[in-house]
Amino acid sequence: MTTFKAIRIDKADKGTTAALTQFDEAELMDGDVTVAVEWSTVNYKDGLAVTGKAPVVRRFPMIAGVDFAGTVIQSAHPYWQAGDEVICTGWGLGEIHLGAFAERARVKGDWLVKLPDGMSGRDAMAIGTAGLTAVLSVMALEKHGLTPKDGPMIVTGAAGGVGSLAISLLSKLGFHVIASTGRTSEADYLRGLGAAEIIDRNELSGPAKPLAKERWAGGVDSVGSTTLANVLSMTKYRGAIAACGLAGGMDLPSSVAPFILRGVCLLGIDSVMCPLPLRKIAWDRIAKVLDKAKLSEITKEIGLSEVIEMGPKILVGQVRGRLVVKIS
Question: What residues have CB less than 8 Å from 13, skipping those under 6 apart?
Answer without folding.
Answer: none
